[in-house]
Design a protein that fits this description.
This protein is an alpha/beta fold and 236 residues long. It has a single domain, classed as Alpha-Beta Barrel (TIM Barrel). Helix content is 39%, strand content 21%. The protein contains eight helices and nine strands. Strands 1-9-8-7-6-5-4-2-3 form a nine-stranded mixed sheet. The radius of gyration is 21 Å and the shape is globular.
């Protein structure tokens, strides 16, 4: 009887450890940058916690492309459909042509895609037009204001001009998350310590610097996501 009781205790303890470890586990902050191809999304869907994708809103649907003059027929709708793990992944939507004339229609379309494909992870909508992000806020998307570039080598006075400009927009449009290049991270951290932050490191050839910024992101409780780039078809 004592032996059986001891076995029960051991099993219960093991289950408790597993349960606690799962509870304590946090989603990775490291997501993949510029996943603008179906093949790339399929290949890396089991290797990252989230993807960043570049979109333009054209004729009432999202087209995947980085530059406005880029030729592309890939719809975000089809891209989501191709990813098997889409309900588990986070998605960073870099909205290149968000403006007042398309913000309501694009927000409704993204909400439709979220429902259609049962997207349950964090969906970030990023734009340099902070005034147009409210349509997505109202539909419970995470939004981020892509701040103007701030050269760390600029004078204190020049940096202060950028800081004041960004802070004015933050206040006017009730922004709670900002984003920028890896080289802007120190500026965002020091000038806006209270803000949630996102940033990216797009270089594939300097793994030491990449890992340095990944560590900074992991150590900063105010940084939620860092995007990294990989050489296509090379595992991270």
């Amino acid at each position: 009887m004592k032996r059986i009781f001891g076995i029960i205790i051991l099993v219960f303890s093991a289950a408790l450890v597993v349960s606690c470890s799962k509870t304590a586990e946090k989603p990775s902050k490291v997501w993949l940058h510029r996943v603008n191809e179906v093949a790339k999304a399929k290949y890396y869907q089991d290797k990252f916690a989230g993807f960043e994708v570049d979109v333009h809103f054209v004729d009432n649907h999202f087209v995947i492309k980085h530059d406005s003059d880029e030729k592309s027929n890939m719809r975000l709708d089809d891209w989501f459909a191709s990813i098997k793990r889409r309900s588990e992944l986070g998605f960073w939507i870099d909205f290149k042509n968000l403006k007042e004339s398309n913000m309501e229609a694009s927000a409704k379309e993204l909400a439709r895609l979220r429902k259609t494909y049962k997207l349950k992870g964090m969906i970030i909508v990023e734009s340099s037009n902070a005034e147009c992000l409210k349509a997505f806020d109202d539909l419970n998307f995470r939004t981020s204001y892509y701040i103007p570039f701030a050269n760390q080598n600029a004078s204190h006075e020049e940096l202060q001009v950028v800081t004041d400009s960004v802070r004015k927009i933050i206040k006017e449009y009730d922004v709670n998350t900002i984003s920028g290049f890896w080289s802007q991270y120190p500026f965002m951290r020091d000038s806006f310590p209270e803000m949630r932050k996102l940033f990216w490191y797009e270089r594939t050839y300097d793994s030491a610097v990449r890992d340095y910024y990944i560590n900074l992101a992991n150590e900063d409780p105010k940084t939620d996501v860092v995007l990294i780039a990989v050489k296509y078809n090379n595992e991270y």
